Structures are given as C-alpha cells and as structure tokens.
Amino acid sequence: MKRLILFSLLLILTASVLASTPSTEKKVYIATHVNPHPPVIDGKLDDEIWQKAEWTGDFTQREPNDGVPPSHQTAFKILYDENNLYVGIRAYDAEPDKIVSRVTRRDAFDGDWVEINIDSYFDHRTAFSFTLNAAGVKGDEAVSSDGDYWDSNWNPIWFCDVAHDSEGWTAEFRIPFSQLRFANKDEHVWGIQMQRKIYRFEERSVWQYIPKNTGGWVSYFGELHGLKGIKSSGRIELMPYGVSDLRTFPKEDGNPFSKSRETNFSGGLDAKMRVTSDLTLDVTVNPDFGQVEADPSEVNLTAFETFFPEKRPFFIEGQSILDYKIMGGDGGFSNDRLFYSRRIGRSPQYSHDLGDNEYALAPTNTSIISAMKLTGKTKNGWSIGALDAITERETAKLDFNGVRREETVEPLTNYFVGRLQKDFNAGNSAFGGILTSTHRDLDQPHLQYLNREAYSGGLDFRHQWQNKTYYLDVRTAFSHIRGTRAAILDAQTASARYYQRPDADYVEVDSSRTSLSGHGGVISIGRSGNKKLRMDVGAMWRSPGLELNDLGFLRQADRVMQWAWMGYNSPKSFAVFRSLRTNFNQWWGWNFGRETVFAGGNVNGGGQLANYWWFWMGVGYEGKNLSTGELRGGPALKAPGYWNQWYELTSDNRKAVQVGVNGNNSWADVGGSRFNRVSLWANFRPRNSILLRVNPFYQINKDDLQYIDTVDNGGEDRFLFGRINQKTLGIVVRIDVCITPDLSIQYYGQPFISAGKYLNFKRITESRAANYADRFHTFAGSEVQFDDAEDVFNFDEDLNGTTDYSIDQPDFNFRQFRSNFVVRWEYQPGSTLFLVWTQERTNDSFSNGRFSYGNDLGDLFDTTGTNVFLVKVSRWFSL
Fold first, then answer.
1. Which domain CATH number covers 71?
2. CB count, 10 Å around CB of 671?
3. In this structure, are residues 383 and 420 in contact, taking their beta carbons and an 8 Å threshold?
4. Which of 236, 326, 638, 783 is most buried, by the most CB atoms less than 10 A from its CB?
5. What is the tally of structural domains in the chain?
6. Which domain covers residue 152, as residue numbers?
7. Measured between alpha carbons, how far is 831 from 873 in angstroms, rounded to an integer?
8. Could you read off the pLDDT of 658-679 as tens digits, one per residue?
9. Are the C-beta atoms of residues 623 and 662 closer than 8 Å to each other?
10. Could you give phi then psi for residue 492, rounded to 5 degrees?
11. DSSP letters for 223-234
C-alpha cells in the first residue's frame, strides 16, 4: 500500500514537469458611461444610448466540441452609470422558431440562455453570475473557489427582459451596483465572462475561451475596463413579513392536549445592510420557514445520524464562505464539517419517557430568536464570514391524570461561527481558519447530559501551481467540549466513538472527565486541470476524541484513511460519445489501534452519447472490514467483503418526455446478504410552462447480520442480531406550473412504505472469528419462542424452561405520506406572497413485517393527516 502511495506521488510530480499551460489571449472590453438617459429595460436594445457602445463577440464553443466556433455567434455591449451596470446581448440564430423558451422558476437554467459572470472583487477566485433565459426567467449564482462552487441560493435584486426577432433574440440587463461587492477605487478593472447555451444542440459557448480541462474558471476571465467614479452603495434593505397559519390535527382519544385545529399569527424581519464597501450584514428576527419543503421519508437502521441538506433561505444564501468540509468527494466521510447549519433550530433533544395515562405536548422545532451573518471579501483578499444565532428555551407540557407541569426540552443556546481566509499569490494560494462555539444555558438537572460548551476550529491551506494544473490542499480540525460528567460520559460512549468497546485497548471510558478534546484533518495533492488525465492522492484522520456534532456534523471518529484517485476526461466528441469520463478509486482505512477497518476500490465512468442520452456505471469491491460500531458499544465485528455495482441511464433531456433509470446492487461474499435498489423516473413537459415529474423507487435489503438489541443475561451482554428481509417502495411526484417568471405553483408529494421482518435470530459469540459461521450462534427450536399475547420474543439459552431474557417483537411496517403545495408570487422585485398547504400522514401502529403496498397504502390514507395552511407575505424596502 505504501508503494502505491509513493508511486502515485511520483506520477503526479513527473507529470508536473511535462505540463502545458493554456496560451489563450486575455480579452478586454471597455464599458461606456451613460448619463443622464439610461436605457429602458425592455429587451429590445433599441434605445439610442446603446449606439454609443461597441459590439464585441467572437465566442468559442466549449461544449460539446471544445475550442471550435459555435453554431451561432453571440455579441454584447456594456454600459454603466453611477448606480447600475447595463448589459445588452444579441444571440444570433438562423432558425429563430427553434429557440427554446421555457417559463420556469428562478434558477432553473432551462432552455436557451445567456449569462454574464462578474469578478467585481477582481480576486480571480469569486464572481457573481447573472443568467437570463429566452423566456425572461432569471438565474443568479454566487461563484467561489475559482468556479468549484456555484451557490444558486443567492438572490440579488436586478432587472431584465428579452425580445425575439428574425435574427434570434436579445437580452437586456440592469444590475444595480448595490447588489455587487467591490472596493472603493477611482477606477476599476473587473473580471468578466459571457456565456451562451443553445439548448437544442446542448451547446455552450464563451467569450473568453477557457479550455474545458483548465484547472480553474474565474482566474481565466477576460477583463472589463473603463469603470470610473462608481461607489459601492451603503444601502439598507429591509424585508418585514407576516405569517398566518391554520393547522388541523388528528384527534387522539384521552389526550387532553389533542385538538382538531389551531390558528397562529406571527411576523418577523429580514434585513441586509452594507457595513463597509466590502462587508454585508444579514439579520433575521423570528424567521419562519413554513414554505420550505420537508425532508424525504426514511427508515434508518444504523447507529448513525442521517445527513440532510439545508433548505432554509437565511442559512443557504452565502453558505460557501462559512463552509468548512473536512473532506471532499462523495464517500462516507464527505459530509463531515465544522458547521452544519441544521443544528440551529433543530428538534428539541430531550424527550420525556411517558408513563401510563401520561401525555405530552412538545414543540417539533426549536425557535430561532434572532440570527445575524456578516460576509464579504476585502480588496486585500481577506474573505470574512461570521454568524451568530440564538435559539429559544423550549418547554413541553405534561399531563398525568389532570395534573400538569412544564419541562424544558431544549435549553436557551447561542451558536457562533467565524471564518477568515486570505488569498495571495494572484489567487493561486489561500490560507484560512474557522472557529465555532456552542453555549447552552443548562438550568435544569435533566438536561445535564448535554454539553454546556462546545468549540471547534481548524486551519486550511491551498496552493496551486503551473497555471493551476497542480494543487496541495491541507485542512485541519480540532474540537473541545465541556460539561458535567454525565455529558462527557455520553460523548465517550456515543456511536461516533464507543470508548466502552472491550477490545479497544487504546481508549478507555473515564467517568470522571468533564471535558473531551480531539483533532482531525486531511492532506491531498493532485492534478486538477489542463490535462485529460487527472489524479489525487491523500490521507485523512479523525482522532477518537473528535466531536463536532454540537454545531457540525461527524458520523465517526477514530479513523485514518488513505486514498488514490485517477480520472480521464475527454474534452471533445469522438466515435459515439459527445463526452466521456472514467475514474479509478482506491482506499484503505484503519483505526487508532492500527487495525485495518476497511479497504476497497472501484472503477466507474460514463458521459453523453451522440444521441444526447447520458449514462454512468461502475463496479467496486469492499474487502473484509472490521465494524467497530455494529455491536453498539460491544467488540468490533468482522464483516464479510462485498461487491457493489451501480448504473444510470437517462434519455435526451431536450425532449418533451424524458425518462431515466438508476440503481445499485451489492452482495456479500458469504452469508447471503444483499441490497438492491432501482429507481425509475419520467419528466413530461406538455408545454414550456408545465413540468410533471414522477420518480418511483423500490429497494430490497436482505442483511444476514442486522442488529436488533443488546440485552443483559446474568450480568453478561447479549448482542442480538437477525436476518432482515426489508422491502421499501416510494413514489416522488412533482408538478411545476409557471404562469409567468414571477408566478408559479409547485407540488411535491411522496408516499413511502417500508416493511421489515426478522428471521434467524442470532447472538454474537466470537465477533472476530476467521470463519463467518463461527462469529454467531443461531437460535433454534425452543431456544426462542414468540409470546403473541405480550408481543415479545422469549429466549431460553440453557433450555431449562425458564426465560433468560426477552425482546420486543422487532418487525416493523412504516407508512408515511408527505406533501407540499406552494403558490409563489413575486409581486414586486424582492417582495413575495406565499400560499402553502403541507400535509403529513404517518402510520406505524400495526407491524407484522409483511410488505403489501396496496394494503399499506390503504392503511396510510385511512389515517387522518396533519395539515398546515399558511399565508406568508414579505415586502422588500431599499433605503
């Protein structure tokens, strides 16, 4: 393995000597000042003022055929005054009746479109992107990391329109300088890039040619000159909003808190203000996210938390500047990060164990009192990000035979994130750091299991050389938590660590501790551009004491991992391919006890065919691994190796009907465990303003060693497993109706059915045995009996006729339906009206483990659902 790492490093360093660099000439456009009569934004470009500026064009195709002339040329002009930048674009088309004009929601980037990217910081790393499609639909994104990250959640206030004629179509932009960020100077030079997509050819062309395999994007922009006398605005933007909702609930007999309906009224404020020419402060008071789509349904049988992406507008806009992922890629550690914004406003962490005749009324989420976010980048190359949020102390009401009391379920908490990063060496190098803190007001004894204080931080460094062909990336992390002995004991024995494992002689549980610290990081070196062949080698580590889950996300500590990747990317069409990529991956991991816990690799590849269909496929193998979490704190369990295979095929997305299929399959070397999932989907567009999407999926999970429970048998732990036969079926339905670019109707619905039945109960006997069958004992005959009256399984290990221990019947049937119907009308720029109806139905009251989609679906829709009808109005003011 060490030889492989050394060979990979040698290969990269040798290739760096032979690397070539792009020699494309830098283009320059000189903007024209207009005063006092700016153009009217109607898309027609017929205002006399446009005649003062010169057309420029000469675009070059980038996709699918890199470096050749486009099928149709594009030209543009740029004007400016003291407050705005004006952009006029002429998109020539010899067949104007074939231009694809699709009315969609903002940021859908569908149909034919044109775009300007503006590096107003002129830092060669960040940019602001403004897109307009042929139907007049806006798109906008904040670009960072030299084009590696595009944030479509950034929604500035700008103005635009389009017009069609016999030569093609035209687009007109007015971009207020208040929506951009730049330093105060007498004269500016900005980086710019113009792009155009011709949808029917799946063709993309650019003004400043950047070869497809170039390592970087913003750093190769052309330049915009001539901007004199403009100032960064100190404008304040306010967005007050009001919310009214009606909720209906299923009535529960005997529950004194149960009621059939409830009405609520609330309001809040979002504000944005320019602190300096470089920094912007965002503030939200009592935010409401009722229009946000619900998370998908799931059944999680692991010991680890599921990662869900952020969907709330305040947290997703500009999130890249606060992002600090410890590791990239898409593997099992790719979601580890120091800041996971969904911790703010999370579901209350304490839940009361209810006795007979006892009922509780508890909030589903923690209220955010206020939050503020400071972001920006100075003219000296400093990226600055800071976020502070305060969440409310939440209480639950409890009732026992008419006697009521209140109990805190989430303490008053303050969260802070601070991020600094400095670019230097013309944007080829960057150094930065991050610090997070969580402080809880633990004034109740029953909450002392939570950490009172939690800190995390890290330093990162990235260097690129040979025209950004090669890179070195280093990221580190540390954590420190403080609390009572109970809180730190919980942290030591949590699923991310399991210090209590009897075979882990390099860690130990210390019940007297009141703090815990850890560290982690990653280092990688590779080739990312200017060549068809790319590669990366690296290593990461997570010390046993690392804990990030107060404000970050960490599934598993106590890991060290090495990997190597090599990929080939063909930039031009050949044979039956419009594009083609192939990848090879290898990895190896161990714990801090120097035991190998996993090792494997895969080969995958795909691309676009000449008929515009897309495909992807891969095959991999995961060797025998040592699972330190499968026994939930017991000894490590040696698991069989397994093969896995995945595939995806989608039809031509230019058509009115588009279909696709994807899936993955895995099967173990021994034991008969296997997993199969297939997902079908179809998009139907009966007209340019309507899109129907249906996505059914079905999966089968047959795991021969699925954890059930840990029970005590005379002072000895029994780790009980079974063979699970689980079947899951779901259907995701989406309907988008866009009446105008500013008025849309969206529907999301998902019925979800999952059933699991357990057979062949086992107890682990020798978890590390070389032979698979020697690792467990399978109960047979009268060793295990089902008690139908109590709905439990009784175990009699010594066959003396007396029950040694019992477990609840583990079979399950989970049925859930979630839907979201949203009418969104941007009645004025930045001002929005939402009409929302959400519904959820959940039924898991009857469980026999048998899968019957028809019966389960009938039971689900016989269940009374919870409904929320919401009206939300916001109004944008600029002061």
1. 2.60.40.1190
2. 18
3. yes
4. 326
5. 1
6. 31-228
7. 8
8. 999 999 999 999 999 999 999 9
9. no
10. -65, -35
11. EEEEEES-----
